[in-house]
C-alpha cells in the first residue's frame, strides 16, 4: 500500500515539475523585474546625454543619445575607487578583529569552568539589549576628546570589535564540538590557546563564516557612524562618499546615477564571485 | 604550581579582549548617556546639570511622540518581509535549471547598500517625472504626478517599501537554507494524507522552519524599530515634511548632531533603551512559550 | 662700511705714530747733523674711486600687509565653500600673493561642499577646527553665539574695518561686535526662462517687481502653461524670509518673539494659498539651502518660469541644458513688503581657538581686500564687499553677457544691503520651530494664525521669556 502510494506521489511530483515549470519561471521573472528595476533606471539615467530628459512625462526609458561622458566626469571629479578601498580596509580589519576577539571569548564560556562564568555570561546577554545607536553620542565624544581617532578609519573599526551576538553565535558552535577531542589534547599537554587555534576553530568554520559575513556586511553598509566620524574626503567609506556625491552633483542626476553605478559595480563583481560564502555563511546561522 | 595558576587565569585571558572592548564601547557609553540625559550639553562647552528637565520636555514634545509612533508603525515591515521571503524561498526551493541565478539576483539589493538604493528610490519616486509617477499616470490611477517625497502620508510607506525590498533577499536565503533542512519524507507523508500543494506548505514547510521564522522576526523587528538610513537618505536628512518620516533614532541623531542638544538626545536614547529592553523581554517570553 | 676700515686705520696710525716717534730719537750732541736714515713710513693716500656696491634696502611695508604681529612660521588651514575645482587657480594665486605680503606663513587650503556646516561643527567639537573658514553669512550667528569665533571688531585695526561696506561688516553682530569679515556678495535676481514667458503670452516687463505682484504672476503663468513657479524660502533662517518679504517685526524691544502678528499671518497665508492653488512647486519651497541646486536643475529642465538665484550659477544651467542658455535673462528680483532685499553674502571667519590668530586674521583680511575682491569679480559674477573695488573700470563698463547685466547697478544694491533682523538667540532651534509651523500650515492644514501663535509660544519658552 505504502509503496504504491509512494510511486504515485513520485509520478505526481515529476508531472507537476514539467507543467508548472513555465509558471514558476513567470513568477520568478516578475520578482526579478521588481528587483532589477531600480538598478535599470539608474543605468539608463547614467547613460543619458545632456539632451535626454532625466525626468519627463512620459518617462523616457531609453536614452536617445547614450554616452559614457557622465562616468568619465564623475571619475575625474571624485575618487570613488578610493572610497571602495577604504570600505574594504575597514570591513576587513573589523571582521578579523571582531571574529578573533569573539572566538577567544566564546571558548571559555563554552568549554571551561571558572568562577564568575555565569555573571559574565549574563552581562554579555544584557549588552545585547543596548542598541548601538545609543552609544553613538558618547562614542563621538570619546572619539573626539579621548582617543582622538576621529577622522581616521580606526574610529570605524574599534567600536565594532565587541559583538555579543557573535560571541553567542560562536559559543553555540563551540558547544557542539565533542569534549573528547579537547580532553585528549589537554591530557597531551597542549595549551588552551593551541587547542583553541588548532582543534576547535577549524571544526566550527561554518559558524566563523557566518559571523564574518554578518559583521562584514554590517560594516560595509554602515552610514550613520562613519558620516559622523569622517571629515577628510580621502578616507570616506563608500556609503559616506556616495552621499557626498549626491550633494556635489545635485544639479545633475545623470552624474549622481553614474557615480552610484561606479560605486556598486565592484561590489556586484565581488559578490558574484564570492556568493557561495555568503549563502553558506547565512545558512550556517540557522543550523547553528 | 605555575601551571595551576596559569590554568586558573587562562579563561580570563581569553575573555579579556572582549570584556575590555565591551567596557569601553558599550558599558561606558551606557553610563555616559544616562548621565548626559540629566544635563544640557552642546559638546563645545561643558555640560550643565538640569535634573529631569529633558524628560519633562520629552513628554510634551509632539515630534518625539510622532517619531515613537513612526518607529512602531515601521514594525509592519517585519511580517511583510517574512511572508514575502518565505514565499520566495519556497519558490526557489525546487530544481529548475538556472535557479541559482535567480537566487543570486534577489540577493543583490542586500549588498548594494542603503545609500545607492536610497538614491535609486529618490529617482523612482521623483515628483516631476519619475517612473512610478509615469506608471501610475499611464495606468490611469492618477492624473497629475504626485510629489511623493513631500507628501507627509507617503514618506513612511516609501521608506518601508525600500526596507522590504532590501531585506527580502537577505532573509530569503536564511529561509531557503531552513527549508532545505526539511526532509522529503514529511512532504511525502503530507501528500499521502491528501494535502494539495498549498496545504503541504502550510502544514509542513512553515512549521518546519519555525526556528528560522523566530530568528528573523527578532532581528527584523529590532532593526525596524531602529531604522535610520532610509529616512536619512530619502528625506535628505530633514526627516520629511511635518517630520512625517522621523523615527526614534533619526530624532536622536537630529537632536544630537544637528541641533547640538546632546542632553536631550541622551534622554531620547534612554527611551530607546527601555523600548529595546521591553522588546527583548517579550521576544524571550514568546520563545519560551513556543518551545513548550 | 666705515667700521671695517676703522680698526686697521687706528692700528696703522698708531703704528705710524709710534714708528715716527721711535724713528726720530737720536743721541744728544751739540750740533744738529743731517743724517740720512731709512725710515719706514706708512702713508695714507686718499683716492676717490667709483666702486659698485650692492645695496639691499630694508623692506618697507607691503601695501597689502595690513595686519601686524603675524606669527612667524604659522601654519594655518583655510576652508572654502563650493569653490573647487572652478576657482582653484584664483585661490592658489591669491594665496601666493598673500605669501608675498606675509612670508613665512604656510596656508593649507581645502574646499568643502554640501557638508561644510556639519564638518565645521564637528571639527570645533574635536578641537582641531580650521583656522580660517569661508561660510555663508547666515551661519555666522550660530558659531558666534557659541563663542567659537574670533571677534573681528576687536582683532582688526579700524582702518582695516573701514575697507568694507559698513552695513556688510556689521550684518550679523552679536553683542554689538562683528565676528566675520564679508567676502563676496551675490546679487540674487530672477533667472528667467524667456521661452516659457513667450509661451504664456508674457514679456520680460511683465515680471513682478514686488512680492504681491509675484503671486499674481505665478497664477497667470500657471493658468496659461500649467507650469508653476519655483519659489524658495530661506530654510536656514526662515525668520529672515518673513522679515524681508512680509515686513514682519520678529522681536519686540524686550527680546520676546512676536512673529504671530497680522503681517506674519498674511505672509504665511500667501504661501499657503499658493501651494493650495499649485501656483508654486511643493517640493521647492522648503528646499535645504545645501540642496538648492535641485531647484536649479528643475529650472534648467524648463519646469519653472524663473528661479531666484545668482548670476554666478548660470554656468551650471549652461552645463546642464545648453539649449536653454540662449533664452535666459537676468533681472532684479521682486522686492518684499519691507522694501529691502536680504543680503546674499559669504563671509570669512576665524576660529577662536586658532593657534595663530594674527596670521589667520591676516589671511581673512587679505582675501577680502579690494584687490583680491576685484580679481575674483573678474572671474565670476560675484560682487565685492569693499567699496574701493568698484572704482575700477571693470564695474563701470556696460555689460555684454547675460551674466553681467546686473554689474553696473550692483554697487548700489550692495551698498543698500543691510540687516533688518535683530540678533536671534538659539537660532537653529528657533528656526526649527518656525519651520514646523510653516509646514503645519502649508502641508498639515493648520490655520496660519494658530501655527504661528504656537510657534511664538514655543520659541519664547525656549529662550526663557
Automatic annotation (TrEMBL), chain A:
GO molecular function annotation: transmembrane transporter activity
GO cellular component: membrane; plasma membrane
Membrane topology classification: Multi-pass membrane protein
Subcellular location: Cell membrane
Residue stretches spanning the membrane: 21-43, 83-107, 119-141, 153-170, 255-274
Keywords from the UniProt entry: Cell membrane, Membrane, Transmembrane, Transmembrane helix, Transport
First-listed, main subcellular location of the protein, grouped into a coarse class: membrane
Domain of life according to the entry: Bacteria
Name assigned to this protein: Binding-protein-dependent transport systems inner membrane component
Source organism: Chloroflexus aurantiacus (strain ATCC 29366 / DSM 635 / J-10-fl)
Automatic annotation (TrEMBL), chain B:
Keyword terms, alphabetized: Cell membrane, Membrane, Transmembrane, Transmembrane helix, Transport
Localization in the cell: Cell membrane
Taxonomy, superkingdom: Bacteria
Entry coiled-coil feature ranges: none
Keyword Transmembrane part of the UniProt annotation: yes
GO BP field: transmembrane transport
Segments passing through the bilayer: 12-38, 72-92, 104-124, 154-179, 207-225, 231-253, 262-282
Gene Ontology cellular component list: plasma membrane
ABC transmembrane type-1 domain residues: 67-283
Membrane topology: Multi-pass membrane protein
InterPro entries linked to this entry: ABC_transporter_permease, MetI-like, MetI-like_sf
CDD domains, sorted: TM_PBP2 (cd06261)
Broad class of where this protein is predominantly found: membrane
Record family assignment: Belongs to the binding-protein-dependent transport system permease family.
Record's protein name: Binding-protein-dependent transport systems inner membrane component
The organism of origin for this protein: Chloroflexus aurantiacus (strain ATCC 29366 / DSM 635 / J-10-fl)
UniProtKB/TrEMBL annotation, chain C:
Matching Pfam families: SBP_bac_1
Signal peptide span: 1-21
Entry protein name: Extracellular solute-binding protein family 1
SUPFAM superfamilies found in the cross-reference section: Periplasmic binding protein-like II
Gene3D superfamilies: Periplasmic binding protein-like II (3.40.190.10)
Species of the source: Chloroflexus aurantiacus (strain ATCC 29366 / DSM 635 / J-10-fl)
InterPro entries, per database record: Bact_solute-bd_prot1, SBP
GO CC, one annotated term: membrane
Keywords: Signal
Recorded GO MF terms: transmembrane transporter activity
Source lineage: Bacteria, Bacillati, Chloroflexota, Chloroflexia, Chloroflexales
